[in-house]
Each structure stands twice: as C-alpha cells, then as structure tokens.
Amino acid sequence: MNKILSKIHNLLIVPVVTIHDAKNASRLANALLAGGLPCAEITFRTEAAVDAIKEIAKQEEMLVGAGTVLTINQVKAAVDAGAQFIVSPGFNPKIVGYCKKNEIPITPGICNPTDIEMALDFELDVVKFFPAEAFGGLKTLKAISAPYGMMKFIPTGGINTGNLPDYLQFPSVLACGGSWMVKSHLISAGRFDEIEKLTREAVNIAKEAK
Ligand code: 3PG
Fold first, then answer.
1. Averaged over 167-182, what is the pLDDT?
2. How many angstroms separate the first and last alpha carbons of the chain?
3. Known catalytic residue at 41
C-alpha cells in the first residue's frame, strides 16, 4: 500500500475540514497536533481551501490532503499547495486516471460494487465509502465489501464517536473520515481548545477500538 495511505491507517481518523478563512489554518493544525491527530483533509468547498492547504503544509508533522476534489485543476492546485493525498466524493475516472499517472494518492468515493470494480480497474486498494451512514452504514459496507477482500475502505459521512468503534473494528476499514471534531463553526469561532479536546477524545476512542 502507498505510504501516505499507510500513515492514514496508523492514524485511524481523517478529519474532514471545511474552512472559510485560511488565517485559521495554522491554529487548526496546532489544535489537531495537540489532540494527537496530525492530519487534515481540507475540502474544496470554500475559496480558502488552497491557502489553507499551503498554511498547513508548512507544518512538517502534518499530513495534509485535499477533499471534495471535483476537477483535475483542483488536483493540480492542491498538490502545488502541498497536498499529499486527494479525496473525491464520487468516482471520476478522469481524476483517478490523472492521479494514478502522476503517482498522487487518491481515495475516490464509492457506494456500490460497480464503483469498487472501477477502482480495481485502476489498481486502487483503498477507496472512500461515502456517504457511509446515509447508504446504510456498516451493514451495507459489510455486504458490498464481501466479494472484494483486497479492497480497504475509509467510511465517511455520518461518522461520530458513537459509531466510530464499530467501523474501525471491521477488518476492511482502513480508517474513518469525519468532520465532527473540526466543525467549521468551531474553526470560524476560534474555538481551538474545543477542537483539541474533541480530537483527543476521538483519538482515544479509535485507539481503544483497535
Ligand atoms: C462531508 O460530507 O462533509 C464529509 O464527508 C464528512 O461528513 P460528516 O460531516 O458527516 O462527518
């Protein structure tokens, strides 16, 4: 497995961040580091995404990626800014092909066996199961992953401290993604102590589950 994806496996959680002002990015990174989770997926849901990735990439300990990536231009902008991995909500063969060709780790969203087989065609071994809870949660993941023992999943969407342990205990789950410890209203309000606390709590729950 790619070494960035192995790092994500070691961390067990990918914080999914929507940030409205890149000025908050380095304090966000500090809070995640202090909470024990040196990782952030910065989503292209705001204009601040590229500048936030640049800020966070300055902190060497941080593993920073880009999420909600919908175009090849966004992949290029994210990588130029320092993103080390790419996440997309769905499976776009053009984006996946570009990332594979350029050896950029990508975990595209999948939600059914057809998507998984497209990922296998591109020789991916990790995909994002999205939106996890809305698509039936762990029950669905167990059913759709059964024929594909070679594939690992990052369930994202509706994950929280309540359902995190069950997902992490399922062997096909590499890690879980979620926004619950980095809610954008907490970032915008400068509540980094709260982010650190929620992050530490998430890390402890994940470690106990494994
Ligand atoms: C999203 O949809 O923003 C991400 O996949 C995270 O989902 P969540 O906010 O339910 O954790």
1. 98
2. 20
3. yes
Cβ–Cβ < 8 Å for 60, 29: no
Closest residue by Cα to atom 2, ligand 1, is: 157
3-state secondary structure 16-34: EECCCCHHHHHHHHHHHHH
Q: What is the mean pLDDT of residues 187-196?
A: 98
117: annotated active-site residue: no
- Using the atom order of ligand 1, give the atom closest to the CA of residue 178: 11
What is the count of structural domains for the chain?
A: 1
φ and ψ of 137, to 5 deg: 65, -150
Distance from the alpha carbon of residue 192 to the mean position of ligand 1, in angstroms: 19
Among 40, 45, 48, smallest CA distance to 13 is for: 40
Residues 140-156 pLDDT 10s: 999 999 999 999 999 99
Q: 123 C-alpha vs ligand 1 centroid, how far in Å? A: 26
38 upstream amide cis, omega within 30 of 0 = no
Look up the domain containing 123 and give its range: 3-209
177 alpha carbon, distance to own chain's centre: 5
Give the CATH number, domain containing residue 139.
Answer: 3.20.20.70
Which residue CA neighbors atom 11 of ligand 1 most closely?
178
